[in-house]
Amino acid sequence: MGRGAIALRLEMSLRIVGGDNGKMWSDRTKRFGNACVIAILVVAATAFVRYAGFSGSIDRFLWEAKFSHDKRPVTGQIVLIDIDAKSLNELGVWPLPRRLYAELTDFVAGSGASDILFDIDFSAVSSAEDDRLFANSIESAGNVSLAMFRQAASAGTNQSEVINKPIDKFLEAAWPVVVMVPVENDSRIWRNIYGYDISGTSELSASAFLGEYSGEALGAFGLDFGISIDELPTVSLVDVLDRSVDPEFFLGKKVVVGASAQELRDLFPVPVYGILPGSVIQALGAESLLQNRAMRIEGELAALAFAVVVFLLLLMTKIEGWAVKALILALAAGAIELAAFLLQKHMPLLVPTASAQFLLLFAATGIVLRELGFHRLISHVATIGKHNSERMLGLVFEDSFDAIVVIQKDGCVSAASRSARLLFHRKKLIGSKAHEVLPSELVEEAQEVLLSTVDQMPISKTLAMPFDNGDLRYIEYVVTRSERTLAGNSGDDTSEAVACLTCRDVTEERESALRLEYLAKYDPITGLLNRNGFEEELTMQALLVESRGENLGLLQFAVVNLDQIVASLGFSFGDSVRKTIATRLKTHLSDGVTWSALSSDTFAAAFANNPRGDDETRLIERIRDLIGEDYSIDGARISVQLKFGYAVCDAAEPPETQLKRSGNALARVRRDIQQEVLAFDPGMDAALMRRRELETELFKAIVRDELQMAYQPLVTLDDGLMYGVEALLRWEHRELGPISPAEFVPIAEENGYIVELGAWALNRAMKECLSWPLPVRLSINLSAIQFSRGNLVATVQEALQRTGFPAERLDLEITESLFIEEGLDLRFLMEEIRSFGCSFSLDDFGTGYSSLSYLPNYPFSKIKLDRAFIRETLSDKKDVSLIEAVLHLVKGHDMELIVEGIETPEQAAKLKQLGCQLGQGYLFGKPMNAIELASMLSKAA
């Protein structure tokens, strides 16, 4: 080979080698540059997280997890006497008397305790004797330490903080120790202090003192929450005071006395244990020092350096695959935590590893981005999201509450939810012919939707679907058209129309709707029309009778003793009576009559009434014969009492008016003891309107000052002198004039307003009575409603206190109707009121119930004999014998008799002859106002 050829080959070889080397150098430079950029970004992100404070929270989380997995026992040198909830309940007082602490100190010191620490505030002086006893016990023990602490000063003071320390008498023989603990950013206790400078003196903390610390009393140390402080030997304070604890328990031990009861609020949040009392935290600090486990924080830079080295090595190596590198970083993170855990387990060392973990996390993110590229990563995430969405949609479809079936153009089912398989009782639907597995109505409508080229609004329909087992279910369904996209081989997508059938079983909803529709018109117990259904029927029946020129008859009857039947036999018997009545009405009296159960005890009938006939009378007689006979139900013989009210109405009147008129007649006849049947007359409407008007106006009467008190004299029959008055309520309406008490008092009793009226009358009568020249007795009537609904005891007491009226001059009159009030402890109420000094009178004696049986059981001082026993001349021996019998009765019970209705001197003379001492009537004076009565008393004075 010639020299030229050799030279040419050599030159070419050098060029090739030089070109390859240049390319390699360029790749390395690019790789190094990328690595530097990623490294700078990772370090910057880590630094930001570190100085923003995020890493501190993560470090505490990791330390707490390590503490939870590194449990070590307590030394057993420290015991706790706990002021717990049991102690507070049994001792029953807080703060505890210091003589108890003295007793406790004597016992614990006598048991051989090496140290006694009270984590209790003794900064305030107690009783001199208790403080002396406790001081003597402290001095005798010689090993007592007392808590002192700093706290913020109260608002309004010049000081920023206050030092709470034991009183000087205790500090003469006790060691002061600091019990404050620092709170970290997460509001929990992680550290304790060695001591604190208080008033220029460095004082040891309770933990340092118990932990036998001998260094400088400054700075703080970390608590080892791996110590099982929940296993600290603990006894209840009350058990120590009761000597239920063996003295050997305290021998040679350091004793801490503190409180865990929630009421005392000496509780703090801590890691691992959640909440600990302050005394237990001090014990944990002492245990940490005794076990040489005063935790310190170190090693953050070493962990960071290790993470950085691993990260840089991965950047510079040629290891392929981001998953492998991410795995290596994860292993490095685990190695850091394992090393930190081992160091924490064997040394009092807390290694902050959060910054290193953040660095590794950012490093993994950078490597993934570098290896995959940003766009590939986004594509990868999108693919994962698409798969997850498809999977989720599949689950939603499968688990749909509605039954969903997708039908193709060829009539095959391509998709079906689980609910669809259950609804149509088919284990398999997909792949089946729709007409073989689905009702024909659904398949036909699906085919119509598929063949249609016009978009239509889906319409919900209902189908009655029978099954082979005889069940009939109602299916609500809707058919919609959808387009399914199909991927073509050439890359072009095509679409195919499918019918989506959505079904729901609405059998229960349909039955419920029918039931509600029934209940809206019918009474469920009797099966008769209720009031709403009856009013609808009245409207139709009124049109019918009006067309025939007849009137509409409305009859209501009530089983007036149904409440007593239910009270004595139970609700089931009451329902049975109502069912039986309804059955008889429908069976025997349904021809031309529409029946309704208006309420639990009231039935109504609507019928065509011939103006020239007596249809309503004949119907009432038939009801009496049919319904009024006795019933035999479950062995019980039941008789019913009926009352009837009816009205003949113009068919053109509204149903509500027609019902109201017959109802008014029934309501009126219910209040009549003797009458059973009553027809409506227009005067009832007027009376009802009058009653409603008075009820409305009565609520305004006090505000308008329309009420006054009238007073009728009560006299002694021997000399005719007035000894007292009966207060009577009067209403003078500014437009309607005077309203009788017989008219407005029953209204007030029914609506409960009598409570307010009674209180007003009591106060007004007392006030006016005090203005008169002579100190007469005041008698005032009370309603039964005031006893049953109001707080009568408080009302009387308040009136006496407000007016200053002497209670011994007050007589309260009650009637015999009170004695039938069930559930009312009348005797107790009367005794409570009589304890104020008041007296009670029994009004209208002899006109009500078996009064003789009540007299010995209730504290009455007077009886008022009703005016019905006072005839004009009292010449009838029967009248005289009745009065003499009552006189013997009241004398035997040490009471007085007041005779009402005395109108003539002859009556007064005869009553005086018989031995009556007190009287009331027009002979001595009619009811008069306060001014007139004051004038009458002035003349008598």
UniProtKB/TrEMBL annotation:
Q: Does the record bear Transmembrane in its keywords?
A: yes
Query: Which residues constitute the signal peptide according to the record?
Result: none
Q: Which residues form the EAL domain?
A: 691-941
Q: Which SUPFAM superfamilies match?
A: EAL domain-like, Nucleotide cyclase
Q: What PROSITE patterns does the record point to?
A: EAL, GGDEF
User: Keywords, A to Z?
Assistant: Membrane, Transmembrane, Transmembrane helix
Q: Which InterPro entries match?
A: Biofilm_reg_signaling, CHASE2, EAL_dom, EAL_sf, GGDEF_dom, Nucleotide_cyclase, PAS, Rev_trsase/Diguanyl_cyclase
Q: What is this protein called?
A: EAL domain-containing protein
